[in-house]
C-alpha cells in the first residue's frame, strides 16, 4: 500500500492531488487542518492536540503506537476539537518511522519490478528489518549523462498498518501518506514557485530531532534525520522550554552545507530555510546568513495562509506546517 501511496506522492512532488483535510502525527501532537475548497489560502479549520507521553514513539523496527484504542480516542478528540468531519485525509508520519535513502546508479532497469528488486537488494544491507516485510517507494531522477539518482522511502508494513488502522476505525481513509519533512517541503514549494531552478536546504528542528533536506533543481539530493533526547512539547504551549531545547542551528546547518559544497556544488546554496517550533530571532538568521554566504530564512506559513481565527493560527502556525503543506499540495 505505501509503495503505491508514497510513490504517487513523491512522483507528483510539486503538483500533488490531495484532499482538503490533512493531518500530521508526531510523538507529541496530532495537527489537523482543513482548507477552504474555494480559497486555498484560507485555513477553514485547524487544531493541534497533545498526545499522552509515550503513546506515539516513532521507530523503524517496532509498532509506533503503544495503545491503539488510546490513540484512536486521541485522534477522535482532535477531530472534534478542530470541528472536522471527513471520509478522506492526507497523512504525514514522523520522519523516524521510515528510512529515506539516496542511491546513485550508472544504470537502472526499465521494468518496475526489476527496479524494486534491485533497490530492495541494496536496502537489505542497510535497513534494520527484513526487507520483505517493508513497503518501498522510489523516485528516479535521470541526468543528462544517463546516470540516475534514486530516492527510496522504506517503511515496515506493521508500522504503516497501525497508523492506517487508527483512521479506518473512525471511517476515514488515509489515501495519501508521506513523511513530515516531505510534507513541509510541499509548503516550501508554495512559498518558492521557482524552487525547481534553485538549490535549497530545508532544516526542521524540533525537540525530538532534526531533519535536513536539500533539493537541487527540483531533485532531492540529500536527506538527514537525527533523533534527539525529547523532553518538551511540540506545540506553542511551553514555548520557553521548547526554544531552549532546540539544537544549535549553526551546528545542524554546517554539515549539510559542507556536504553540498564538497559533493554537489562549489557554489553556496541559493537559500536555507529553517522550520522550528518557535520563530528564530531575526538577528540569529542574519548571523547565519553571513556565516554560510546564503540567505537563511524562517519558513513562515503566514506568507501563504490566513484564517478568520488569525491569532490562533499565528500561535500554532509552526506546529501546523506539514499539515498545511499537504493540504496546500492539493491546489
Explained architecture:
The chain is of the alpha/beta class and 331 residues long. The chain has one domain (2-97, 157-328): Nucleotidyltransferase, domain 5. It has 10 helices and 13 strands. The chain has a 5-stranded mixed sheet with strand order 3-2-1-4-8, sandwiched between helices. Strand 6 (134-142) and strand 7 (148-156) form a beta hairpin. Helix 2 packs across helix 4 and helix 5 (180-191) crosses helix 10. The longest helix is centred in the C-terminal third of the chain and has 16 residues, at 249-264. It is globular, with a radius of gyration of 19 Å. The protein starts with a helix and ends with a helix. Mean pLDDT is 89; it is low at 1-16 and 231-245.
- Tell me the Rg in angstroms: 19 Å
Strand order of the largest sheet: 3-2-1-4-8
What is the number of strand segments?
Answer: 13
Distance between the termini: 24 Å
- Give me the strand/helix succession: HEEEHEEHEEHEHEEEHHEHEHH
User: Helical element count?
Assistant: 10
Give me the CATH architecture, please.
Answer: 2-Layer Sandwich
Annotated CATH topology: Nucleotidyltransferase, domain 5
According to CATH, the homologous superfamily is: ATPase, nucleotide binding domain
Indicate the multimeric state: single chain
Biggest sheet character: 5 strands, mixed
What is the approximate shape?
A: globular
